[in-house]
Amino acid sequence: MTPEEFFYNVFEFLPRQGPGCTGATRKAYSYLPPIPGDAKILDIGCGSGTQTRDLAGLTSNTITAVDNHQPFIDAIAAQAQKDGMAGRIRAVCASMDTLPFEPGQFDLIWSEGAIFITGFEQGLRAWKPLVKKEGFIVVSDAVRFEADPPVELMQYWEKLGYPLLSEQERVEQIQREGLRFIAMYRLPEAGWWENFYVPMLARVAELRKTYGNDPTLAAILDSFELEVEMYRKYKWYFGYTFFVMQNP
Q1: pLDDT value, residue 37
Q2: How confident is residue 40, by pLDDT bands cut at 50, 70 and 90?
Q3: Residues 6+ apart with CB under 8 A from 227
């Protein structure tokens, strides 16, 4: 099994592929004005589609869910068929770097915990053209909450290649990309533990029984446990924040 296959072997069995919760999705959505019934929504980096289904429950709009992992797309399509939403939820396998959509096609772009893959500013720059004028973008991303976080925490994120910025620095990035900042909302702790880390640690423990003696794969499992430990130790200093913005 390749490291990439092993990585997906962990996440395919989780209810969510990143921190989040239904309540946070609803709260972030509440900062938007009423969306017209014919509006089109794009969910980028949708994973297996938990927040996609949450959005479908909040709106009557059509939703295009995009991820680059075909099994996630298959799971979304199957669940949409089961829920009677096949006509409203369209699942597309594509990279967020080369999204196959025309400019100005969507009224709302939604992305939970995925914009780090391209980088915050780079993602906004690439996605903004896909949103209609006066349309909206909502993303969640990692930020620091305190001005002077522990050195160990900052070094951890720097090794990941994604230095932690403050919420205000993220707002400044939003404004530099020509977007209007509307609101932000911090993901509550439950969105990290109950919905993500608890099932992830259970999956890691299960896989370690079989692959714990493989140095490469065991190192991947170690990295997941280190991620959890960083949050356990330093949750007061960082987390995910939803940013709500408009294309003026």
Answers
A1: 86
A2: very high
A3: none
* Tokens (6 digits) for 74: 């298959």
CATH of the domain at 149: 3.40.50.150
Kindly state whether residue 146 falls inside one of the protein's structural domains.
yes
Q: How far apart are CA 160 and CA 92, in angstroms?
A: 28
Query: Considering its fold, how many domains does the chain have in total?
Result: 1
Average pLDDT, the chain: 96
* Alpha helices by DSSP H, the chain: 3-11, 22-30, 50-58, 70-82, 120-127, 151-159, 167-176, 198-211, 215-234
Burial of 13 (0-12, 13-18, 19+ CB in 10 A): middle
**3-class state of residue 154 by DSSP:** helix
Rounded Cα distance between 151 and 103, Å, is 42
Q: In the predicted model, what is the mean pLDDT of residues 79-83? A: 93
pLDDT > 90? residue 145:
yes
In a domain, 217, yes or no: no
User: What is the spatial distance between Cα 131 and Cα 137, in angstroms, rounded to a whole number?
Assistant: 8
- Cβ 76 vs Cβ 65: under 8 Å: yes
Which amino acid type is present at position 120? F
Q: What domain range is 64 assigned to?
A: 21-189+237-246
Establish if 225 belongs to a structural domain.
no
pLDDT number for residue 17: 92
Question: Region 153-174: what's the mean pLDDT?
Answer: 96
Whole-angstrom distance, CA of residue 44 vs CA of residue 240: 17
pTM given for the model: 0.96
DSSP string, 58-88: H-SSEEEEEES-HHHHHHHHHHHHHTT-TTT
